[in-house]
Design brief:
CATH architecture of the largest domain: Alpha-Beta Complex
CATH topology of the largest domain: inorganic pyrophosphatase (n-terminal core)
CATH superfamily of the largest domain: inorganic pyrophosphatase (n-terminal core)
Bound molecules: manganese (II) ion
Low-confidence stretches: none
Number of helices: 11
Structural class: alpha/beta
Helix content: 25-40%
CATH class of the largest domain: Alpha Beta
């Protein structure tokens, strides 16, 4: 039987135009590593491709990862040649997601670990929502085909697993653990260490310092308000709120000119982070994600005038928790 990369590569060879690999917008280390690994593997099977993405990555570790590992990727807006003849493989996301821009070519394939969207169809898809990182799925493609990942690819994939599973503590499946173990012998521990030491900038630290004064705890629920923080920083700040002993569910939100970005975390099985995120932005914006981590956004124009957004978010979150008996 053909391996998955053989199946995908032989299909991509039929592309009438060029082949692109697209990680989700504002790619994080897992998305970047997945695209990097898949591009390498496709080339081993005779398919040349380019990695294109929308909206610049925000976190400093993503930037360092691209620099230190020599990862080639381009902003879609800088690639003038993308057209309707071209074929696209989406990694770490699916067609129709709010964070996957439509590049106006044919989305023939998706490899992802987010919840399956039933409104999208592909010629090839491998969607495993139970897996903690997309990097694990790509690593599996290597070993399934008997391919040894080069040192920099193995390092990227290992770091992708590390970040998406919060150091192997969040949504870790057997596959994540096995791939982490197998990648270990091929990866560069020194580079991993350097990436772990490039998590925030001085400006981030200042934003954190200001935000942590706003922390509020209501039962098991923690809230944090940030001002002008990008998506990644809101998520990282939220991880710190969740790390509080008292807090099992946390919400961090950032008030920005374009709207309000919401990050949600939960370690209570009965309270799904994605459902809570949707409850918080209900009727105003969009939200989604995973069981333990999720996000949402309310565009500035949808904010109810004359009402406190802080109260609105807290009220909705508390009501949702109470409706489930917490
Ligand atoms: Mn991911």
């Amino acid at each position: 039987m053909a391996t998955r990369i053989e199946t995908l590569a032989s299909m991509m060879k039929k592309a009438p135009g060029a082949v692109f690999v697209q990680p989700h917008d504002v790619p994080d280390p897992d998305a970047i590593a997945s695209a990097f690994g898949l591009r390498y593997l496709l080339s081993r099977f005779g398919v040349e491709s380019r990695v294109v993405y929308e909206r610049e990555y925000e976190k400093i570790d993503a930037q360092r990862m691209v620099e230190l590992l020599g990862i080639e990727l381009s902003l879609a807006s800088a690639v003038s040649s993308i057209d309707t003849e071209d074929w696209l493989v989406i990694v770490d996301g699916q067609k129709g997601n709010a964070n996957i821009v439509d590049l106006h070519c044919v989305e023939v394939a998706a490899i992802d670990h987010h919840e399956l969207r039933t409104d999208a169809s592909y010629r090839y898809s491998d969607i495993q929502p139970e897996v903690g990182s997309c990097s694990s799925i790509i690593a599996d493609y290597f070993f399934e085909a008997g391919e040894v990942p080069p040192r920099l690819v193995a390092t990227a994939l290992m770091y992708g697993i590390f970040v998406d599973t919060d150091n192997l503590t969040r949504s870790v499946s057997d596959l994540d653990a096995r791939m982490f173990y197998r990648l270990h012998e091929y990866s560069d521990a020194d580079l991993i260490r350097r990436l772990r030491c490039s998590q925030i900038t001085r400006n981030d630290l200042a934003l954190y310092a200001e935000a942590f004064r706003t922390a509020e705890i209501y039962g098991k629920l923690g809230f944090l308000r940030l001002t002008d923080a990008d998506d990644s920083l809101v998520g990282s700040a939220n991880d710190i709120v969740l790390s509080l002993d008292e807090v099992d569910v946390s919400i961090a939100y950032s008030l920005r000119e374009d709207g309000v970005k919401v990050s949600v975390r939960s370690i209570i099985e009965a309270i799904r982070a994605d459902d809570l995120a949707r409850a918080v932005v209900d009727g105003l914006g969009f939200g989604g994600g995973h069981t333990h981590m999720a996000g949402g956004f309310i565009p500035a124009g949808a904010l109810p005038p004359g009402k406190s957004i802080d109260t609105l978010i807290k009220h909705r979150a508390i009501s949702y928790m109470e409706s489930l008996g917490y």
